[in-house]
Recover the amino acids of this structure.
């Protein structure tokens, strides 16, 4: 029938820009956005922002078939150009412009200057104008590195036999509770947004033994600090047939080692641009919570205060001390007090006041919380009752325990916090594309 | 300091079960959950469910150091066993049990029989008892295939230069509107849950040229049908420097080809278990919307009704007709009426009543909606005004257009719908781990 056309699926990428060097001496066509124009008399330096690079171009009246005035920043173009070797250029080449087809032009100039080395503005303005400030070379490098992190995490976990899952973000209001949840009306029923995939990943341990999820979680915390986001991306894994909490920490240490090694290979350019050095390490120190409190008290020259809490300030002091003592930017804090951990945390047999759990601090900030969970049904119900909870509310969660679950545990890693530590940002918002905080719902 | 231990990150997987064949004649240790016991006199057939397989084991009183009564379904164990070649077994081996360490026992038997060939129950019960029914071999194969799909999509898109992004799921209430959004209170402001990452992925085209996201989306649709979910996983991509809508369809066709080829290689066992055949195809037919309406009217022997809508029943008829005519289970419907597409859809130059857009139908069900978008600021604002919308509400979205965007387009693919079509399920809920529909908030 004549009206039917056929779509075959032959697609190609734009000629990979880094291979431009191989085309030295040739004429190529290349598309991108004009990032910056530096006009001289009769010629101009032009930077072309392509999907992955910023390419140096030279406009000269002799060579170009179009006038200098036609060049406009943030217009999208196809250049016809000669590839010329140029050692001083980052890509090893320079493009000598011959022809230009303009695909689109901006309506207005960006209200913020985006084509300098960095966007020189307050964090509020940086975030308010995210749709354009992200076009800055350094800003966009941040999220390419973040993508490098998630790619590496996936590759690592898949290699270790983990299955990736997608669990619901809307749930029944009874299950989690607490003040920090966002509530919504779900066809007349009260529902909440998931603070974590905790219950689901535990259930799924009974199905696949090892599972992970990288997905948004939502916390209605009213903290307005440089380390809190109300929506963030949580990297969660959960694994069965684990009886020692150290096995979880070993898995995380191996994962982070793999992530760092992958970034070095795959995000070289972005890391260089942001002047980030990937830490070299062989092992991560681990220190019990109570001991950590003592150390911090000693540093502060005071008695131990609030023996069940490790305050952000204390986390910083501990991290600094560990860095000095061991050279490590990462430190596990283990054996958290029972009272401060959730009802599913497994208590230590030798000291029921502490749990088989841990946090991971990275340059002074908690980036991971993890631990062994209770897998025995009666034990879990008993602990709930001790805490005044109602097990019947958790019927479907407890169904997994009731019908048999292996010993298991897992952890959650905050992607934005981890990225911000790696890149040395004071404010975690810089590592979120479009952050949500107590004041910020747009863009 | 003695209190500091060190976590080095050496982890290993359980001996990969499929390599058991290489250990024929040896004694191995293997952990898993006892899936099924068939007791005979003095011996028993035992199925062990491991992370990826179900392994046939034989218990005999002569060989085993434990009694038959100690074996219990859904208990988690470590078996010590001799690997014996057995051609009739799916893994090529059989384990002759010697020793057993019990790690956990269920508190109660599962209320639903989960260890038959399939879970023989209504879909409501299947879903009510998801934490245990997912342990069924066929049920869990579904989501391994789904994971195979997302893995393949990621690999394909990364290979084509796409960057994966994470965009917020909570947004300002002004932007999307419409009846089908979930609203929530965000620290005193009205907010909504994202129905799609549409605005954000368009903004990001200005940053990375090609982006994708695989993440939950939320639709408060009151439809109680076999094809609707109120929360689902959307596979979205958006690409710049595209001027023909066919380029988007080519990209999707290539992606699906890659997905099918990958599944064949990586999910062989699961596909065999579910008796799914991966379709072979060279190209996907494409047919204009108006023509599709005519064809369907002809089949029904009626005049064209509701010329701007393609009803689910009509989608089915069209798909059946295309299958008969061309042998294809997939069909693109193109040139959707302007009135039925969102404000950002690009209209055709030759006929402003239709858009440069398409749907993809797979075995009678719409699985993808896509198209070119308006990239020009003034054109977008004019179209909004024609529709009675207020451009000022969309300030941050339009900032991208205002400051220059390349011609671009993209699409969204519903992961659960796609999975359910591939696997031949009548009900899309079967392809969601923990589905959310108008009645279902748990588990």
């Amino acid at each position: 029938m004549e009206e039917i056309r056929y779509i075959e699926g032959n697609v190609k990428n734009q000629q990979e820009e880094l291979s431009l060097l191989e085309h030295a001496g040739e004429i190529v066509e290349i598309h991108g956005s004009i990032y910056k124009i530096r006009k001289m008399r009769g010629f101009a330096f032009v930077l072309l922002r392509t999907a992955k690079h910023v390419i140096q171009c030279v406009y000269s009246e002799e060579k170009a078939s179009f006038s200098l005035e036609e060049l406009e920043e943030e217009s999208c173009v196809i250049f016809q150009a000669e590839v010329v070797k140029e050692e001083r250029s980052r890509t090893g080449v320079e493009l000598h412009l011959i022809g230009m087809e303009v695909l689109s032009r901006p309506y207005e100039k960006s209200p913020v200057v985006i084509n300098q080395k960095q966007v020189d503005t307050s964090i509020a303005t940086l975030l308010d104008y995210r749709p354009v400030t992200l076009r800055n070379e350094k800003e966009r490098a941040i999220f390419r590195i973040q993508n490098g992190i998630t790619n590496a995490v996936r590759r690592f976990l898949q290699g270790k036999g983990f299955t990736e899952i997608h669990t619901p973000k809307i749930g029944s209001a009874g299950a989690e509770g607490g003040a920090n949840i966002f509530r919504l009306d779900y066809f007349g029923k009260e529902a909440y947004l998931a603070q974590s995939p905790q219950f689901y990943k535990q259930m799924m341990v009974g199905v696949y033994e090892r599972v992970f999820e990288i997905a948004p979680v939502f916390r209605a915390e009213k903290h307005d600090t440089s380390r809190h986001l109300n929506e963030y991306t949580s990297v969660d894994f959960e694994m069965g047939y684990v009886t020692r909490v150290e096995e979880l920490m070993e898995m995380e240490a191996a994962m982070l080692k793999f992530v760092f090694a992958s970034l070095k290979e795959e995000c070289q350019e972005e890391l260089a641009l942001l002047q980030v050095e990937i830490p070299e390490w062989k092992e991560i120190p681990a220190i019990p919570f109570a001991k950590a409190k003592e150390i911090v008290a000693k540093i502060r020259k005071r008695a131990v205060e609030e023996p069940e809490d490790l305050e952000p300030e204390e986390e910083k002091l501990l991290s600094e001390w560990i860095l000095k003592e061991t050279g490590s930017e990462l430190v596990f804090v283990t054996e958290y007090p029972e009272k401060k951990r959730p009802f599913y945390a497994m208590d230590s047999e030798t000291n029921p006041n502490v749990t088989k759990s841990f946090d991971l601090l990275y340059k002074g900030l908690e980036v991971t919380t993890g631990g062994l969970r209770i897998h025995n049904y009666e034990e879990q119900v008993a602990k709930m009752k001790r805490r005044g909870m109602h097990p019947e509310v958790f019927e479907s969660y407890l169904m997994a325990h009731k019908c048999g679950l292996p010993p298991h545990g897992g952890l959650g890693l905050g992607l934005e916090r981890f990225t911000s530590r790696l890149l040395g940002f004071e404010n975690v918002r810089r590592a979120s594309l479009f952050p949500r905080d107590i004041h910020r719902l747009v863009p």
